[in-house]
Amino acid sequence: MFNALFVFIAVFTVVCALGAMLSRNTVDAAMCLLLCLAGVAGLFVALHAFLLAFLLLLVYAGAVVTLFLFIIMLIDVRGAAVPPRRRIATAAGAAALVLVVAGLASLATRGRLSLPPPPPGLPVGESLKAYAELLFTTYLLPVQLIGFLLLIAMLGVIALSRKAP
Prior knowledge:
The protein is an all-alpha fold.
């Protein structure tokens, strides 16, 4: 049962990622990205990493994709023509595809990944308490700096995308 659920979520995530990459409409691509992030959060839940799933949904799916949508709607790219692809971009994409296929083929032919045994787990409440204590003591300044950087980036995009009077 777990393998079937894992395969379903993994296929869903890959299909949504392909939709985000191949979509010509930017709003559709952002929605596919949102669904892809939800699929990755589902994989985290299947691995019992509930905090990572929650943070992924809160930060990336909740804030970053919303910011992308606001920027897309602010810029209003409906009438823009699609720029032609350069040869170097096509070559880089083909090289990346070859590397990914070679990696998957190597993984399939040489067997499974050998993972170390899982450490003895703490109860869920204890591990969340430890995360929260580190987040609000040791890592408080870096988290707030990243928040301010995202705010400055959003204000910069708004300022740059304004139409000249």
